[in-house]
């Protein structure tokens, strides 16, 4: 059991060390040699768990994906309206990007590999599908205009969030990301919600998922 626990800890150490370098240097820029230096482990320890840099990168993307799925499930358990859960999803994504190097690395690797059509789309598709499901509910609950098309809306929201966090990264190293996501919803909500629901906008903008943050 002790040996198994050490193996798990070593693997986690490799993944975190690699994520830190992938985030800073990208998939191409980070070499296995620099990853080893960053983890302080031996080449044998690394190759025991991962056969190549690509396998390690795919593992990081998978962990980012798992983190996203756990957050989606936690938000789905919240006692909140669908439109509030959409806002929660965006703020939780932002929180993970700011605080979790594996999430940041997973996003960077995915975008980098996508240049050559090798990047996995699953994390983005899951976000979009979740947002679409919630948008359908929000229309039924009367919090979104009835003529809004949920699939197009979901794709737009995730695209808008991606743009917001990218600009935040360029300008402030994401230090203002929380505020910029709030700005996004400040501008969007009046245009997508029926007028008689506008008094709820302030409360909806403040929606956060405590359950997702505990995961």
Automatic annotation (TrEMBL):
It holds the Pfam family TetR_C_45. Residues 31-50 bind DNA. One of its GO terms (molecular function) is DNA binding. The keyword Metal-binding does not apply. Residues 8-68 form the HTH tetR-type domain. Keywords: DNA-binding, Transcription, Transcription regulation. NCBIfam families: ScbR_bind_reg. This is Putative TetR family transcriptional regulator.
């Amino acid at each position: 059991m002790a040996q198994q626990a050490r193996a798990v800890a070593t693997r986690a150490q490799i993944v975190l060390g690699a994520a830190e370098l992938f985030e800073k240097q990208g998939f191409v820029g980070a070499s296995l040699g620099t990853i080893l230096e960053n983890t302080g482990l031996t080449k044998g320890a690394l190759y025991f768990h991962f056969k190549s840099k690509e396998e390690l990168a795919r593992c990081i993307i998978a962990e980012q994906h798992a983190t996203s799925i756990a957050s989606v499930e936690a938000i789905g358990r919240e006692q909140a309206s669908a439109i509030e859960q959409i806002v929660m999803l965006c703020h939780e994504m932002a929180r993970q990007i700011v605080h979790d190097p594996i999430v940041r690395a997973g996003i960077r690797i995915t975008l980098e590999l996508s240049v050559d059509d090798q990047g996995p789309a699953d994390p983005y598709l899951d976000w979009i599908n979740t947002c679409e499901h919630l948008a359908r509910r929000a229309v039924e609950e009367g919090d979104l205009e009835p003529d809004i098309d949920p699939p197009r809306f979901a794709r737009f929201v995730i695209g808008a969030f991606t743009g917001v966090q990218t600009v935040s990264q360029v300008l402030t190293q994401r230090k203002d990301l929380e505020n910029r996501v709030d700005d996004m919803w400040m501008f969007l909500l009046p245009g997508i919600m029926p007028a008689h629901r506008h008094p709820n906008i302030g409360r909806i903008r403040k929606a956060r998922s405590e359950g997702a943050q505990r995961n």
